[in-house]
Amino acid sequence: MTSDPNLHGSKTEELIVEASEALRSRKPSRMVRIGDHLKREWQIYLLLLPTILWLLIFLYKPMYGLQIAFKDYSVFRGVAGSAWVGLEHFQTLFSNDQFLRALRNTVIISFYGLIFGFPMPIFLALMFNEILHQTFKKTSQTIIYLPHFISSVIIAGIVITAFSPSAGIVNTVMGWFGIDPIYFLTKPEWFRPIFVGTGIWQEAGFQSIVYLAAIAGVSPTLYESAVVDGASRWQMMWKITIPSILPTIIIMLIIRIGNMLEVSFEMIILLYQPATYETADVVNTFIYRQGIQGGQYDLAAAAGLFNAVVAFVLVMSANTISKRYSRTSLW
Amino acid sequence: MRKLSLTLAILGTTAMTAPGFAQDRSDLRIVDEPVEFTIHMHWPRAQGYGVGGDASKVYPVEEVARELTGISLKDATAGKNSTDSNEAMNLLIAQGDMPDIVGGHLIQQPVNEFGPQGAFVPLNDLVKEHAPHIQAFWDSHPGLQEAISAYDGNYYYIPYLPDGKYGRAWFVRQDWLDKLGLEQPQNVDELHDALVAFRDQDPNGNGLKDEIPYFARQWEEVNRLLTLWDARSSGSDTYHDFYVNDDGKVVHPYAQEAYRVGLSNIAQWYAEGLIDPEIYTRGSSSRDYLLGENLGGMTHDWFASTSGYNAALSDKVDGFNFIPFLPPASVSGVRMEEHRRIPIKPDGWAISHQAEDPVNVIKYFDFWFTEYGRLLSNFGVEGKTWDMIDGEPVYKPEVLNSDSPVNSQMYLEGAQIQRGYWQDYRYEWQWTSEAAREGIELYDSEDLLIDQFLGVALNEAEQKVYDKYWPSLRTYMLERQQAWVLGTGDVTADWDEYIATLNKMGYEDVTEVMNTAYARQYGG
């Protein structure tokens, strides 16, 4: 390595000139820079455009309507024409035992989903990665992805049939061991396991694709040198694969926590009964019954806004914690 | 040119085969120069005013109405991509630009809510001055106009008015009764014995104890058994509705003493295995399944459709005979059929505040209440689907013998759609099966029906109270009801705490506003 003393000097000079110029006319120069940048990279911005439009139209514009959470909303009078009522709808919600119960159920069901549902796709991806027989691997992957593509209505039908006390496979198998049939879908204590289990069965396979992609991105040279060092497959999984996909896992976890209150309520509506409301009724089903069916859009908006605020707090905290302890974060 | 001659040819044939046209119906003409009104028409069978919801295909009935009245309707339906009529109505109102006529499914609640706010035209005076046939209907059917009125005393829509009295009935496998040597149960004890016999004596003869004595397509129908202990399950053809008690007060059936007794008995029957153990989850196909597999013994369901299984299953199930029987007498000896057809539906049509010519719109609404308009709205185009024989409208054989049900055929003609019209029971009777006709005659021979609660129109303050408390109350009532039937909890032991909770949750506030509104509306 040779060093040219002149080069060093001229570079410093250049920097000083640029800095003083920038000081004199900061704004135009930045504008020019952005303009140049856009000119150079316009194809990429063009690709971004549809997403930005989508965000503006479908996520930002509707925020205008959020104000109905604080209004006595009439469809005919419109958003602007309805009278303000302050926090009345929030008071109504929080003085309602059923809303509080729904909130508790939402948190519990989400928590179960997180504990049991989140590790499953990672586990599946790691397992798939270890399968050497290609045909077997592809076949089992396809089978495990399938439930994702079946509509919730059909899945609910399958679940109801499977757990039926007279003809369901679960009770039939229990019958072989002399256990009396259980009418699972009317037992509050069984609702959460069935719901969370159904969710895992339906989605775990498909969610494992993200992790499979992350695993595929791990440099093969790492494994090659590990093999040279005499590492076992188990050691390679623990020491190479998992640490390499950890950032993906963290990002997925943060997203998951942000969506925690968004329990797939269409599935709950299909599976629950008044008999199981005690453990099954979540915020979204409560909103549906109380707000949408009852035509109380303002109350529904208040509950939805509350949901969003909680989700925001959750995702912010998850991100901060992750940034502090693992240096991986969404932003 | 070709198109024109084709039209002429069709007109020619119609004129030849339809002597009705030859008659002078110029008195039905409303306007001299043709006028066009826009219409929102959203209902389960069609989202749009045209054959199957397709606005480009004009209903044959609409063609004739145009010819006769000079008024044609042009489709302007909102929310066509949704089958939810409530949603479509909200969309229509929210978008601000309303057509002249707003019609379809479940419009009563929105027109009564937004009418007083100015979205719809009050019809009281318009009808009095310009719609003699509608007015004549109100005059001959006292109480109905009040029932559809909003809280301000005006009414804002012309409803679809069903004809005929009976809806659901009690059905039993008569062949099972015969096989076990039993008579049709005449009271609650005999009913219990018959159900026990169905459970224990293997009436389907397959050697297995797999019979389901009482089942229902809608789990709510299990509550009909409440009437056997003089309790009620609902006051109208909507489940879990309020009813008017003997003192003339609006109350909810699930807060009455009789309900406690009735429900404890239902829970008992459920525990004994007399009621489908899967009653809450078996769902809408249970009638198909349990009858088709020769398992179900008794149910409470619609006359026409349930009688239809006799023909459908005659090959599959040997000796299948599922027929209506009279409601068994209750513990106090009352025979009651709680379900009946409601005389007014929340469906129909209204005039929006943006209609420029409400007088001609109401005259057009009135046209459908004239004798010929009513025939047109019920049976379709004369000469095409029906003929007048000895003063009676009679369907053509090809309509009655078609693979497609008569009502489905009518929907495509533009008849029996949810405009404001008065149904004619002769329409349905013609294609009701023999078994159902016999059942209806049987039910007609006794005094079984009870008056229906037609609902109340709440003002804004009352509506607020109702909205605040009622959905949660209803949830709580149903939750406890299912728990008691399933045996988690005992209705007798829990009763005082249950009533206390209802009161804490605002039951009395809700019944108070209901009764205030009821007194205002019906002058009670």
Oligomer designation: heterodimer
CATH fold-level name of the largest domain in chain B: D-Maltodextrin-Binding Protein, domain 2
Could you say how many structural domains of chain B there are in total? 3
Continuous helix count of chain A: 16
SSE order and pairing:
The complex is a heterodimer of chains A (331) and B (524).
Chain A: H1 5-24, H2 26-60, E1 71-72, H3 78-81, E2 83-84, H4 88-94, H5 97-117, H6 119-130, H7 134-145, H8 152-162, H9 169-176, H10 188-216, H11 220-228, H12 233-258, H13 265-271, H14 277-280, H15 283-292, H16 297-326
Helix pairs in contact in A: 1-2, 4-16, 5-10, 5-15, 6-10, 8-13, 10-12, 12-16, 15-16
Chain B: H1 2-17, H2 19-22, E1 35-43, E2 46-47, H3 60-69, E3 71-75, H4 85-95, E4 101-104, H5 108-114, H6 124-130, H7 132-140, H8 144-147, E5 157-159, E6 168-173, H9 174-179, H10 188-200, E7 212-214, E8 243-244, E9 250-251, H11 257-271, H12 286-292, E10 296-302, H13 303-307, H14 309-312, E11 322-325, E12 348-351, H15 358-367, H16 371-379, E13 386-389, E14 392-395, H17 397-400, H18 406-413, H19 426-429, H20 434-444, H21 460-486, H22 491-504, H23 507-522
Helix pairs in contact in B: 11-21, 21-23
What would you say this structure looks like, in words?
The complex is a heterodimer of chains A (331) and B (524). Chain A is mainly α and 331 residues long. Chain A has helices at 5-24, 26-60, 78-81, 88-94, 97-117, 119-130, 134-145, 152-162, 169-176, 188-216, 220-228, 233-258, 265-271, 277-280, 283-292, 297-326, and strands at residues 71-72, 83-84. Chain A has a two-stranded antiparallel ribbon with strand order 1-2. Chain A is flat. By secondary structure, chain B is of the alpha+beta class. Chain B contains 23 helices and 14 strands. The longest helix of chain B has 27 residues, at 460-486. In chain B, strands 1, 2, 3, 4, 5 and 12 form a 6-stranded mixed β-sheet that branches.
